[in-house]
Amino acid sequence: MEIKYFEKDDILSLKFNDNPIGKEISYDWHLHITYDKKNTIREITILDASKSGVAKIWFNMAMAVAYTGLSEATLRRKIKAKELQAYQPGRDYRFRKEDLDLFLKHAQKKYAS
């Protein structure tokens, strides 16, 4: 899974696989879903994501691992060390995109010097 947010254009893209495109459907002016040839969702594209509230997406652990490129063990260590904000409504952690971005920004500064 690949999650990209294009802040300048306010577009959120959730890509699930690279299978050949079968069909694309616009469900509304801001929601486009691409299906592969097996009729499985390949990609979801959301225009004006922050205005519609979708950009305030909650990431589970697997999504956070994919988004940050860090391992689950590393994220758990950073949560325990209080370096990364996370919420635990049950057994799994939930992350706000803003918190992950802030963590990555600080980590980049920390290791750049």
* Biggest sheet features: 5 strands, antiparallel
**β content, as a range?**
25-35%
Rg to the nearest angstrom? 16 Å
Instruction: Quickly give the structural class.
Output: alpha+beta
For this structure, what is the CATH class of the largest domain?
A: Mainly Alpha
Tally of DSSP helical segments? 3
In total, how many domains does the architecture comprise?
2
| Number of β-strand runs | 7
Straight-line N-to-C gap? 31 Å
Question: In CATH terms, what is the fold-level topology of the largest domain?
Answer: Multidrug-efflux Transporter Regulator, Chain: A, Domain 2
Instruction: Give the topology string: H per helix, E per strand.
Output: EEEEEEHHEH
Shape label: elongated
**Spatial arrangement of strands, main beta sheet:** 1-2-5-4-3
CATH architecture of the largest domain, please?
Answer: Orthogonal Bundle
- Compute the average pLDDT: 86
